[in-house]
Each structure stands twice: as C-alpha cells, then as structure tokens.
C-alpha cells in the first residue's frame, strides 16, 4: 500500500491542498478552499481533471476545509494511507535553515516570526492546528519559504540602517520562494547536465508574487525580496523597490496612515497600478496586443526591472551559467521572457523565438539559440513535491 503525503498551503482566507504519492510524486487529489471565515466558504476538489465544489456551511473555516478533505479521502478510500502532513510556512526568520518536524517549540517559533510575516504565518498556524485536530497522531512538518536563503552572506542580507535594528528587531533581508528555488535549481542542473555543486544560476520566480535569486553551487547567495515580500520586482499588485520617503510623501499629501500606505503599495500597485486594468498578466498581455497604453507600459516596466535584477544577480552569483524562468508568469509568458532576454542580450542571450513559444503550459525547455553564449531555460516549479519529499524524509517514511 502506498504512503501518501498531504501538503497544505494556507492563506488567511484560503487553503491549497494536495495529496501526493511518496514514491512517485503523483498528485492523487488537489483542492482549493476559498472565502474561509465567511458564511459562504467552500472548497473545490480536483481528481483526474474532474472538479467538485463542496460548501463548508457547517464549519466555514480552515478546520472545516481540512475536515472536508478527510471526508473526500474517505470517499476515495485513501484516508488510511495518509502518513504525514507537510505545511508551507512563509517565515522562519533566522531560526530555521531547513524543514523541521512540528512540535510545541516549532509552533512557538512560528508565532515569534509573525511580525516578519503578519499576513502569512498566522494563516500557516491555522492550517497546522487544523491538521493536528483532524489527522490526530500523524507527524506534521514545517517547510519554510525563508530557509533556503539562510546561506546568503552578511553583506547580501544586511540593510544599510543602524545595525542595532538588526540585533534588536531582526531587520534584514530574508527572501521568500525558497522552496521553489531549491526545486528549480536542482532541476535546472539536471536538465542542463551540470554539476549543481559547480553552477551559477539566476532564477526568476514570476507569479503574482515575483522574485529573483542568485544561486551559486546550489545555495542562495542573494535574492530580491527583503524582510517582507514587498521589496524587489514589480509584481501583480506590489510596487517592489521604491524610495522609502514615499511613505512620508503619501502620508502628507493623501492624509494616509503608515498602514494605509503599506496597503496601497502591497495591494493597489504593481501591474494593477500601472495598467489601471488588472493584476493578471494574461489580461494585461491581451490588452497590450490590442494597443492599450497602460498595459504596454506595465509589461515594459515589469520586464525592464526584472532585467536589471538579472544583471545584478549575475554579480552576486559570480557569473551566470543559465537564466532560469519559473512560476506562473515565468513558465507561460513568452512575451515577458523575450523582453527580459533582449534587455540582457549583452550577457550573451539570444532568443530562439520558436523554442520560446513552445515552452508553455508546464513544458521545460531551452529558449535561447544554440549560438547564445549563455542559455536560458524554462523549468516548471513543483513546491508541493519538495514539501512532500521533506515531509517524508523528516517523518522517517
């Protein structure tokens, strides 16, 4: 009988889940719980491409969503095969450089890191409590977004502010998307036939949240996100890098509080703010093709800022053996990939237009010509598989 791993990724009002076979990595069940905490909460299951929506009327919260997963597993005859639960946890601060079995001390540590991820860590804890309550006695494992970046050197993560703020408050660059970077770097080395212990990759994880990292010899040496996921690239609704004095400027001129400015920069900016259309890259690309000026400008700024970061990450990596695109936008937007590679042509990239068009919808592939001095490759990420593998390893399965 196969041993199955349940993977949970909880947001404040959502829950993404997947059940994976420990041996093959196959996904037997996936789900998305939405509007958790509201009366009309529901969860949608997907099995073999077929979807089923279940209302969570009786318990419209994370516990109800996890309970509905258990009911679905029972209906499929799989509940007895769940051997462990893996949880995505956004911030472990400096406390964890690897995944860890969850106990009371780990829960206390996740709580301690709430100021570093106030939107994410409380939601991650809700998922942990729900899993412990519903799947009693099974091991739970925390897989931290920040852990992979704990190998960054001090000169990469320290901000140019009074150092006592680091000592007293933990004010430093932490970075995120670490689980994705760990998977993609390993897969890129395999795909390109390189020894990961002798490699220099720049990886762009592009989705609604977007970041880029320099990975040398399989270890993170720099990344664009900071103490929070707001710093760095232009994103779906996040501004990315911006003059810190903007806080005072907007507060004075618009009579906003610090929290209101933070909300504006996190939820009303980025592609949405520039285009004045949408935060969805697909919509923006469609409208840009039709000639919409805001959409065209949003794509250009997104690509230009990313290209500048790619060049800077090549410095951090000590060179560049490959530029890797991943994440929803990175895997599917041939338009943005081509723009970035053209901006970075001085580094030796030359776009293969046909290969770039072909690398979509979960397909990996080299998207530069054979004459390029440096290759660029698309590698689909699989954070769920990484979480499942860590969970199996730490649970002794």
Automatic annotation (TrEMBL):
Its cofactor is Mg(2+); Mn(2+). Mg(2+). Can also accept Mn(2+). It catalyses: acetate + ATP = acetyl phosphate + ADP. It comes from the Bacteria. It is found in: Cytoplasm. Pfam families: Acetate_kinase. GO terms for biological process: acetate metabolic process; acetyl-CoA biosynthetic process. Mg(2+) binds at residues 9, 383. Keywords: ATP-binding, Cytoplasm, Kinase, Magnesium, Metal-binding, Nucleotide-binding, Transferase. Its EC number is 2.7.2.1. Substrate binds at residue 88. InterPro entries: Ac/propionate_kinase, Aliphatic_acid_kin_short-chain, Aliphatic_acid_kinase_CS, ATPase_NBD. ATP binds at residues 16, 205-209, 280-282, 328-332. One of its GO terms (cellular component) is cytosol. GO terms for molecular function: acetate kinase activity; ATP binding; magnesium ion binding. The record marks 177, 238 as: Transition state stabilizer. Pathway: Metabolic intermediate biosynthesis; acetyl-CoA biosynthesis; acetyl-CoA from acetate: step 1/2. Catalyzes the formation of acetyl phosphate from acetate and ATP. Can also catalyze the reverse reaction. PANTHER family: ACETATE KINASE. Homodimer. Belongs to the acetokinase family. This is Acetate kinase. It comes from Simonsiella muelleri ATCC 29453. The gene is ackA.
């Amino acid at each position: 009988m196969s041993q199955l791993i349940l993977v949970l990724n909880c947001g404040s009002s959502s829950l993404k889940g997947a059940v994976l076979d420990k041996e093959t990595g196959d996904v037997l069940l996936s789900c998305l719980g939405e509007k958790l905490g509201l009366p009309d909460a529901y969860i949608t299951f997907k099995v073999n491409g077929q979807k089923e929506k279940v209302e969570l009327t009786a318990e419209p919260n994370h516990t109800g969503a996890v309970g509905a997963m258990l009911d679905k597993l029972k209906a499929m005859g799989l509940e007895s095969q769940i051997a462990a639960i893996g949880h995505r946890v956004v911030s472990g601060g400096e406390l964890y450089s690897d995944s860890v079995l969850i106990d009371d001390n780990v829960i206390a540590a996740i709580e301690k890191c709430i100021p570093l991820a106030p939107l994410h860590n409380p939601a991650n804890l809700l998922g942990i409590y729900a899993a412990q309550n519903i799947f009693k006695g099974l091991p739970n494992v925390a897989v931290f977004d920040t852990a992979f970046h704990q190998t960054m050197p001090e000169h990469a993560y320290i901000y140019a502010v009074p150092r006592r703020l680091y000592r007293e408050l933990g004010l430093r660059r932490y970075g995120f998307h670490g689980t994705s970077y760990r998977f993609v770097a390993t897969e890129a080395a395999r795909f390109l036939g390189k020894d990961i212990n002798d490699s220099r990759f720049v990886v762009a994880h592009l989705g609604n949240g977007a970041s880029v990292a320099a990975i040398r010899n399989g270890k993170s040496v720099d990344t664009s996100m900071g103490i929070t996921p707001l710093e760095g690239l232009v994103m779906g609704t996040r501004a990315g890098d911006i003059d810190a004095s903007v806080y005072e400027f907007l507060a004075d001129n618009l009579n906003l509080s610090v929290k209101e400015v933070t909300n504006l920069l996190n939820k009303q900016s980025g592609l949405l703010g520039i285009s004045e259309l949408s935060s969805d890259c697909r919509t923006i690309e469609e409208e840009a093709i039709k000639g919409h000026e805001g959409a065209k400008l949003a794509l250009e700024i997104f690509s230009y800022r990313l290209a500048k970061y790619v060049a800077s990450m090549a410095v951090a990596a000590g060179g560049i053996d490959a530029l890797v695109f991943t994440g929803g936008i990175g895997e599917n937007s041939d338009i943005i990939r081509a723009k970035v590679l053209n901006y970075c042509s001085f580094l030796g990239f030359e776009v293969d237009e046909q290969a770039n068009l072909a690398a979509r919808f979960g397909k990996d592939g080299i998207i530069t010509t054979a004459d390029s001095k440096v290759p660029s490759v698309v590698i689909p990420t699989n954070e769920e598989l990484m979480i499942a593998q860590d969970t199996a390893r730490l649970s002794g399965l």
